Amino acid sequence: MADPANSTSSPFDLVILGAGSGGYACALRASQLGLTVALVEEDKIGGTCLHRGCIPTKALLHAAELADGARAGASHGILTTFEGIDTVALHARKDKVISQLYKGLTGLIGQAGIEVVTGRGRLVDASTVEVDGEGGTTRLSAKTVVLATGSYAKTIPGVELGPRVMTSDQAMDLAQIPQRVAVLGGGVIGVEFASMLRSFGAEVTIVEALDRIVAAEEPSISKHLTREFKKRKITALTSTRVASVEADDQRAVVHLESGDPLEVDLVLVAVGRGPRSEGLGLEDAGVTVDRGFVPTDDRLRTNVEGVRAVGDLVPGLQLAHRGFAHGIFVAEDIAGLDPTPIDDVIIPKVTYCDPEIASVGLTSEAAKGAGKDVETVVYPLGGNGRSIIRGTTGSVTLIREKDGPVLGVHMVGLGVSELISEAQLAVGWEAHPEDIAPLVHAHPSQGEAFGEAAMLAAGRPLHAHA
Ligand SMILES: Cc1cc2nc3c(=O)[nH]c(=O)nc-3n(C[C@H](O)[C@H](O)[C@H](O)COP(=O)(O)OP(=O)(O)OC[C@H]3O[C@@H](n4cnc5c(N)ncnc54)[C@H](O)[C@@H]3O)c2cc1C
């Protein structure tokens, strides 16, 4: 091991490796609680979510919604036309949103007195992190080390990235909207990009190996999304595997194991995200690694005392707000506040395609698998005034335990992302539909659809039949 050129022996209460959603949330909460913190980051504070994930994609998806609004203007009596996409202005707007949030975040971190150490870190042992930065190597000693190095975009073995074959990292900044796109993978990132690129004018084909897109959701949601995508001329080839991809600077051809090859201008590889644990020195420090992920107990402790892990590196949902929750939990646990462990089941999930998907809690299959006696009601958005005004269809599916609490809520339709907060309170607080049914929902709002689903489940429907 190289002798550290620079070193600091001051022991921090916490040294956090990675300043994405999990790492920076942990740092901020720990400093509020009076702990001393060093935050190690090799790139930019904010991580995937702020720079290459949630925020840029949602800025682009908002622009996509405006493009569709311009197309739909005439049907509402507004004289608009869709002329095309100015990608320079598109990215300038997206980048402005990122910069504003980045400025706010770096300001918060600075004011909190967190020591930011720039460079690539690795674990030397349970209480020592070595950082290779521009000024040389620094050693930081810590009472607790938090691993928060996140995830990277996976590719398909044998498929090389290039000007016509990209992951979401590069597709975020397309200089031109391609005419024909193949999206490999029909999960969250795949369907969000498919939806966005279609709104921007591309012809889109999704290739998915499983028998349905968004396979982690209720089957009825996959069915609805497939139908709505079809109306938007987005093709979803399910139960279809990619054999190989050929590409040059001008075009790409996706060869499938069955069916005709797809000749396209862009291939977006969206086959999931893998853990960023290589080169972190985990094995040397004795930290157990499972297919690259770092398993933890419910208090986010690894097998090595004094080493915790948070966010995408920990097996489970890969979501920014799970990272935040993990980070806060670890800070509070170390500070002795005895916080409640984070359960993935009550973490809300939103997919921002058109139509949107929002869900929380158990699917009907998982609820039955857990031995629950389950009742399911479906309230269609076709009965909800605000949804009709907005021109969307879809539904709120509420799953309850017979005579018991709400176990899961699964929604699809434009605007349902904003209904998830109430649904998550219901599931998180184990509310019974009978508790929710008497609560008055504003009219006309899409939130009424959730209220109506609860009324239906409680056996006292208004705009539906029991
Ligand atoms: C296209 C896309 C869209 C997404 N949309 C959403 C969404 O809408 N909502 C949502 O909740 N989630 C979304 N996500 C997922 C979300 O971005 C991640 O769940 C979240 O960023 C995970 O946070 P993290 O802290 O675990 O890791 P990351 O955010 O990946 O942060 C890890 C940080 O560690 C740094 N790092 C890694 N190794 C080292 C090292 N050795 N030394 C120093 N620094 C290191 C990295 O540079 C990085 O900054 C999206 C992801 C993508 C790719």
Automatic annotation (TrEMBL):
GO biological process, one term: 2-oxoglutarate metabolic process
The UniProt record lists the keyword ATP-binding: no
Active site: H443 (proton acceptor)
Cofactor: FAD
Protein's UniProt keywords contain Nucleotide-binding: yes
Alphabetic keyword roster: Cytoplasm, Disulfide bond, FAD, Flavoprotein, NAD, Nucleotide-binding, Oxidoreductase, Redox-active center
Domain of life per record: Bacteria
Disulfide bonding pattern of the chain: C49-C54
Cellular component aspect of the GO annotation: cytoplasm
List of residues binding NAD(+): G185, G186, G187, V188, I189, G190, V191, E192, E208, G272
Gene3D superfamilies the UniProt entry points to: 3.30.390.30, FAD/NAD(P)-binding domain
GO MF terms held by the record: dihydrolipoyl dehydrogenase (NADH) activity; flavin adenine dinucleotide binding
Family in the record: Belongs to the class-I pyridine nucleotide-disulfide oxidoreductase family.
Miscellaneous comment: The active site is a redox-active disulfide bond.
Protein name, entry field: Dihydrolipoyl dehydrogenase
Biological source species: Janibacter limosus
Gene symbol of the encoding locus: lpdA
